[in-house]
Amino acid sequence: MSPCNDLILSCDEIQDTKLLSLVSSVLLAQGNKGEVAAVGQRVVQVLERRLPEGQSARFLLPVLANVISLSPESLTEEQTNVVSKKLADWLRYASLQQGMAQPSGGFFSSPRTKQPAPITEVDGAVATDFFTVLSVAQHYTQDQWLNVQTFSMLRNWLLCYGGKELDTFNPGATAGGDRCVTAVVPAPATSGQLLPPREHLRDKAFEYCQRLAEQSTRRPLKKDDGDLQKACLIEAVKIVDIICKQDSSYMCRAVSFLKVLHSRICGDATYARALLPIAQFFLNYNKLAAVDSDAICKHLFTDIPAQLFHNPSLAFEFVQFCKDNSQLFTDSSSIFRQSFPNLFKFLAWNSPPLISEFVDLLPFLLDPGTTIEIFHLLLDLPCLTAALDIQLRAAALPASEKAGADPAGKPATCLEAFHHPLYKSMFQYLLRSRSAPEDAPDSLVPLRQLLGSLAGSPRVVQCAETVPVLLELFFRVVAEFADGSLINQLVVLLLQRSDQLYEIPAFKEDVYRVLGSNLAMLCGLRPALVVELSTEILEFSGAVSNIQSKEAIFTHMAWAIGEFLSVSHDKRCTVEQITRFFETLEAVLFEITQLRPQASTPSCAPRAISVLMATLTKLAARSQDLIPRVSMFLSKMRTFVQSPAVTSVYCEEDLEEILIRATELMNLLKMPSVAQFVFTPPVASTRFQREVNDSLPLALRMVTQLLEPAPGSMPV
Amino acid sequence: MRRLLSLTPRAGVLLGCGTPSILEENLWQFPFWGTGLRENPRTMPLTPFIHGIYPFGDPGLGRTPGTLFPKQRGHCPWMKWRSLTQGVSLFSSRQVATQCQLLQTSLGCPSSPQLPQLPDELMSLQDAPGGLFQLPPGDPFPERVTVVWLSVLALAFALVCEPQENLSLAEITLRRLAPRLLVSLRLLVPVPLGARVCFGAPSSPFTPYF
């Protein structure tokens, strides 16, 4: 709202193109659809006419680009045809001579004008074909500026106005939401043109892209131009893709053009990023044209990640490519799915920018066939980073040093080990390109130990930080499809691998935390596994060292035993089994609650003690012969928490908590039938029942209060 | 809308978007941009995703994005534009600084807290560290965006692009723009860590627009 009409800005009367562009940018910023349409109309009006001397259209094309991205429907079909025709001319018929320098004036300036020089290519040769963005000049003419600007906005223009749908134009379309403004009737061809404007533009655009591909074969004199060649090639391939989408008659030419291009650049590492839009093209038209995308994708997924994982831009774009084509990963036999070891190399080397991308990608890689291999791979991801480091350094060695060290002796350094017979196959497995579960060596422990010297390297540490996130996601996804056999396999592996992790303390802590909580989750999914895997679980739970070094896993394991080792969860659960578990855990608890701890006695978190006590109580409630043993044990806890050696290790609150817990459990055991009910509820299938389970501590406290109405009546 | 150019050093400067005309116009009027840019369209080869530069005040300095664009009565269909400006106000330097620091760490380069002297000539940034990362929808832009960043001395530059943009080109453009922006900044005094600096002197031709 303007207070006065004189202050209202309008582009209607402005003749000067530079001023028009400045005013337009202010108007476009108003966020008003009417203003955008007005600007669009005015700009096209000016472009339609022959511009007076000194005025240049080059200030207006960027405004037009803005208009179409804000509101493509601002332009009528007739206007888009007019502009399309001009764009085609600017693309194809820009001047082949260089522009003139601004005259510097002065007393001694020559009155004669110099002959303009011809434009050149990036390699210095005189240009033999039409001007493009890859042509070089000292100074540029107006139409050469327009040529570059047209190419800049070509993709968007084609997306907006190149399509041929017959839907009617919908004035209610939201701004920017509908990229393709539709045509109802193609504009009549103007004289001198064989094709209607839209088709004419497509034709010139295709020619331009072919020319760019030719120009990209030249060796540039300046490095900057080399980068520009690659970027323009990528743009050209994307434009060709759009052209084929809009007019399938270009398909044959495009296919042969892109095949030739692909075979030219596929061996050149500097052009690797251009392989992605080419592969995308062949994937897009896989079914249409008799186009075989398999060979191209095979090369892309097998060779590129293995050779170029260290290129962060390529890594990012490659992963985006995978996400954009995620539906192709659903076929488990496809090259996409089989290549996941290669894909993880990108993450292992470039962790910070790619972790969020892999969070999106991981679910597409997981299925019953790949679960186990990916589990191992995730746990070994920091090792992969270290191995990639070695691989890079080994490749950089001069040939004379590459001959391996003495195969009989042990390698002195990681680099020597890379080719050493003892380690070679382990390296090769870790650095494989394709999924190969059957090739897994018996153990990678020696390799992990060898790579321990790199555990502190910053890149390895950054990678290690991504693993807990991915592991958590891994379990969440796997829980959705895993059957009983797979869950059992995972639990066994989880317990095994807890001993076989890369030696980075913070990494191991975090991994244990994730493994522990997900172990409990898996047991909840399939309670019967406590019985089925009793051997492995007993072995793990019986090792006292586990309670200290892997407290998170141990605690959750002990909890799961208490929760699920019962007849109500598995009919095969016998009294003997309950007793066996009881005795194993009792021995551990005894070991860690000695009144005079030895130097060898492991210290452990108070929570572990609490969980062990609760588990023993739960087992005793189910096999009531064990009650006297537990009660006696619990009654000794008072002495334990008061002993001087222990008070120096644990803080007062923790000891208090342990004592309270012991008391509650003991009181509960005084009423065995109540204990049985509390500790062995029916399998929680309703929300109410789950709430009962969650309120166990509350239940314990209530029972305690019932039994001990007066304070001070603690057991002796 | 993805044409945002922001400087995000350990100090922070946010520059926003306008139209290419503003960029070109003001580049010419700024003598220290040099004539090279004026004459050579290939230094700004594919500019759709750089629409321009305008000074963007830190809300803490009294300006908010709302005051940059007059409020519209009634229904404003321009959610994309408006949400861009909101995204601009929320886009923090934190993400770029984090990525930059993580890359420097992984390369084993110590990060120096001091602002070194800026060179007088335009320097080549071929080997300057940089990278790409994505921001998910809602954080802070309503749609998914890709951020292209470049670290130069103690500053970082970021270009926010839509996901389907030509990212190779974005990187080239950033590397070519950054030296010119550095020269124009000409930081004469060290900026305290965490401070936000506004671009635009009183004599700047930007100011009439705001």
TrEMBL record, chain A:
Start and end residues of each AP-5 complex subunit zeta-1 ARM repeats domain: 228-345
Matching Pfam families: SPG48, TPR_AP5Z1, TPR_AP5Z1_C
GO CC annotations, alphabetized: AP-5 adaptor complex
AP-5 complex subunit zeta-1 C-terminal TPR domain residues: 357-706
Lineage top rank: taxon: Eukaryota
InterPro entries reported for this sequence: AP5Z1 (IPR028222), AP5Z1_ARM (IPR055450), TPR_AP5Z1_C (IPR056856), TPR_AP5Z1_N (IPR056857)
AP-5 complex subunit zeta-1 N-terminal TPR domain mapped to chain residues: 1-186
Protein name according to UniProt: Adaptor related protein complex 5 subunit zeta 1
Biological source species: Serinus canaria (Island canary)
Lineage of source species: Eukaryota, Metazoa, Chordata, Craniata, Vertebrata
UniProtKB/TrEMBL annotation, chain B:
Species annotation: Serinus canaria
Descriptive protein name: Adaptor related protein complex 5 subunit sigma 1
Gene name as annotated: AP5S1
Pfam families referenced in this protein's UniProt entry, alphabetically: AP-5_subunit_s1
GO BP field: double-strand break repair via homologous recombination; endosomal transport
One GO location term (cellular component): AP-type membrane coat adaptor complex
